[in-house]
Amino acid sequence: MTRFTLLALLFLLPVLTCCNSEDDEETIDYYALRTPPHPVAPTSKILTKGKWLVYLASEANYTPAGTDMNGDGDVIDEVAVRVNTFSNKRTELGTAVQDMALVNGTLFLVVLEASDGRDWTADGDTADRVLVYQTPSAALPTFFAEVDLTSATVLQGLQTEVFFTSATAPTMPGDTNLFVASVSSNGSIPTPATRVTTAVAADGDGVSVRILDEAEDILFLGMDENLDGDLNGDGDGVDARILAVLDASSIGSVIQGTSLALGATYSLAAVTSGADRIVAFLVNETAQGVNLNAQSLFSATWQPPGCTALGDVDFDDDVLHWLLMADFEAGGSIQNTGLVGTAGERLHVHPKGYVACTSLEADEGLGAGCDMNNDGDVNDRIFRWISAANPGGVVLPETDPSRLMALVTSVPGSVGDSTGGVLVAGKLWVLLVDEAADGRDHDGDPGTDNNLVGAKDPSLNGQGWNFGHTSKAVPVGVTWMATDIQTANRNLMAVEESVIGIDQNGDGDLVDSFPTFPKVLSGSTLTFPGLALATSGTNAGIVTAAGVGYFRVSEAAEGGSDFNTDGDVNDFILSRVGVSNSEPLVHMATLNNLDRPAVQFDSTSAPKFGVILFQESMQGASGKDLNGDGDSNDYVPRYFRIDN
Q1: What average pLDDT does range 120-134 have in this prediction?
Q2: Nearest 10 degrees: CA dihedral of 587, 588, 594, 595?
């Protein structure tokens, strides 16, 4: 009975026919798909900000023989194209690009001279790497600066500032190789670049940094001891990534060093929490030369009961640390939680003031592992969290085995990245728990192990995890989950038929997954509004914008429905439906099954348009040459307006 009630919460909408026909380039009808002529590589970076779309046209795939778009004599480059999605004007920039960023309407491009066949620095060779810019009114880019030749990432664009690592090494104490320039008005020429300074005392000639990541306007930077000497006090000069941070939201901020070493693979995260920002990262014990999760560093109640007799004595863990950015800049401390994570896996930071990681039980203790959830083995990946309100406080993570859950960390979601089985919804942690690994029944069906959605308010210390959702306490399993970047109180999930126990789309099986837009109903209970329409179960690609949800539908999973009327039922279709408005269900276009969102929108402001990649080979038995370049093997960008 309770399993059936979920159906009442799904929007059971009629299936409409696909798809929009190709529209005149001059029309401005919302949702009308417009198609530039260039193909892109399936993993290529695409920029969407304001009214601007920027993509990298693939020379190799443009016509069967390839097309030399930058005049360097080969057809192996990716060349930047800017599109005004309001006027539909395209500008081919004739420049081979490694990376790019849009900053207040001005486009910055990282270019390797050797690939572009051009001496941008006018120094008589093509051995340099440069940063160029293009304003909307200019036909071609302009040289801006020579950048670091060795780092993977040399460019980070924010709302009105661009940061880059220069090829010019620091020469004086306090100097760095990180520079910043501003774009003061929309589409304007950038200001001259100025050097960012540092409070780190190095070997007398400043500090060289590499850009590792960015979150919440905080730049994560790596300092290399091989260039600047011992920066973490461990007596050597060989650690390649000593973490430094910069508050990029405040011009004039200086780079702050943590004196803590990251491994070759690292995990970094940040979130705004109240008036400050929580910064979380994993410190590598081997590089730091310290055992950071030794029992002697913490209180007697720091470990779960199954671990209290198992002191850790090794130096091979990656241990969760956190700081408050403004507090740290003012001289505050960094908190070592002692919780062991896995380098490269996602860290979780809750805006209500918590940090978390997933701990492998086998990494705890004296080599024998630690049974944190009391299920009789040490093979689980356990969700661990702790308050991040007071950097100088007592370290007391949750230790009750009844509240330490084994996660499905490999559940797909987001873009090219797993969520690690953890989301935030309002005040709640939301987990995907593996009943088989956890050794406990959470849905009242002890004969079947499912992957179930659990939710808990971390501020309620004695509260357990809730696995019964909707007003009827229905257990819910999902095959895909992601954060909704448009709304903090909503998640995005593909719900499993098999856990609910009902053939929702009437195709005679219980193997499908359906797009839903979960939000908090009350307390730690979620509701799951969605559609009884089969999505690509492990690649749902669900996103929202302006009150409308978009997702990837599988023709095969949907009972063999030919939504795009191409004579087969093997395709993936872009569909949309209203989430917070009355927009009806519409199947918009043939899509793809790439590890990308169904639609890409501007993530930093109210989106004005969306862009998809049309897979030509998916339309009909022989494919469809949508961009008219003589073949049907391309991935072609298509965009549509959703706002003024």
Answers
A1: 98
A2: -80
